[in-house]
Amino acid sequence: MELRVVRTEDEFNQIKPQWDSLLSSLDSIPLPMTHEWLVAWCRAFSLNMQMEFRCAYLEGDLVGVAPLFRVRERYRGVPVTVLKLAANGHTPFSDVIVHPDLVGEERELAYLRLTSLGDHELGQFFKLHRNGALLQFLIDGPEAGNTFGARRIGLKPSLKTPVIEIDQPWETFFNTRPRALKKSLRHKMNRFRKQPGFSITLEQISAPDQPIVEELIDVSAKSWKASISNDLKSHHGSRVFLLNLIELLGKEGVVSAWIARDGDRAIAFELHLRYDGIVYPIRADYDESYKAFSPGSLLEYSALKYLFDSGAAKQYYTCADDYWYLSNWTSDYEEYCNVECFGGSLRLRCLYFLEYRLIPLVKKFIRKQGKTAKAV
Hints:
Number of strands: 13
Helix content: 25-40%
Number of helices: 11
Order of helices and strands: EHHHEEEEHEHEHHEHHEEEHEEH
């Protein structure tokens, strides 16, 4: 098995047909692993990082990929070299892909080549599925263990994402929702409809220069996220990522937005990417001055009803954490975790001991002391 490393966007573009072919071999194509998503992500978030997209080839065919970046960072104040997956808060989940036809030793070798670390390197694999093959390999693979030189593995919880399966009529699904949710939504929708000029529409987005795109940015700038500089207008990376996604995927007809308006003025939106039968609501904002009308929940209700009625998708993947309001819609979840792999050097073994042994003990002691103090 041969390992090749892609270090530039031009090189990545050259292998796009092979990359797409590998993903098409999966039961469901993961949006965050597609060529378009990764190009958009790299352009927005890879400043000061070195691309190291690892590609495993067997007899000339691409059979495994790991979209990694190499960067020099401080970990608990200590400078280290980090290899991390191309993932951040905008990424629903991430992974390392190995062709499903690879089994046994060939499959293990592919994972080994794609995730290998030097003794002085830290591997960070964010948002891996709890039941995924990659997580199982990292925990039980030949490089993990407690012997000298082996890499130590640390796990931290990440997202617990609600997902809604679209496999029945809307009325059947909605009637099984909690009574309080149905009553609340009907009240909100009736109040919204009574406001002169209020409307909710679904609009396609095919290019970043469409007027609707600037409307989304303006709505975001008036949302609560502006207070923490996480809105689309003030957060450069988020805005560039959105524009790149629209540029790369808009022409395929998979980008759309549910818009709530007061007359001609957009007051809330939910931005959707529909890919391989799955809808990803990757961004949602609302004008804070319209909070009393709950436009966000009404957009979600409208979008879900449309998806069930139209049969346009098989799943609504919320791209969120286990927020209480989403539990009203579903009890199905996809659970993820963050994995850190520490190389075998003395420095990284000490950092592992600090992060996953000493600090948890200190936190446990502090919590225990706090409970004791309250009891007294």
